[in-house]
Design goal:
Number of helices: 3
Shape: globular
Oligomer: single chain
Bound molecules: FE2/S2 (inorganic) cluster
Order of helices and strands: EEHEHHEE
Strand content: 15-25%
Distance between the termini: 27 Å
Number of strands: 5
């Protein structure tokens, strides 16, 4: 199972094994990782699953859909490595992925 590291805004890191096919958001929610609330349940409509993807991983991810771009515009302090974790599907290629939560999501 791919391992994903979720880093809270206070730098607390959680390395979790997540099943292929789940979203990065679902992996966090199922393991009670603080900082990913996922209020809309993964339908790209809330931005409470916003994460900053580690720079070296960013270009390995699937491209953003327009809906994700639009929602990220409304997210808290987005930057060029921002993604919505509900739109990222876990797969073997993402073994070792590192994402960090924004300070507002604590
Ligand atoms: S869970 Fe709502 S946008 Fe990702």
């Amino acid at each position: 199972m791919p391992k994903i590291t979720y880093i809270e805004h206070n730098e607390t890191a959680h390395e979790i094994e997540v099943l292929n096919g789940l979203s990065v958001m679902e992996g966090a929610v199922q393991n009670n990782i603080p900082g990913i609330d996922a209020d809309c349940g993964g339908s790209c409509a809330c931005a409470t699953c916003h994460v900053y993807v580690d720079e070296k991983w960013f270009n390995k991810l699937s491209k953003k859909e327009v809906a994700e771009e639009d929602m990220l515009d409304m997210a808290f302090e987005p930057n060029k490595f921002s993604r919505l974790s509900c739109q990222l599907t876990v797969a073997d290629e993402l073994n070792g992925l590192v994402v960090k939560m924004p300070s507002k999501q604590g």
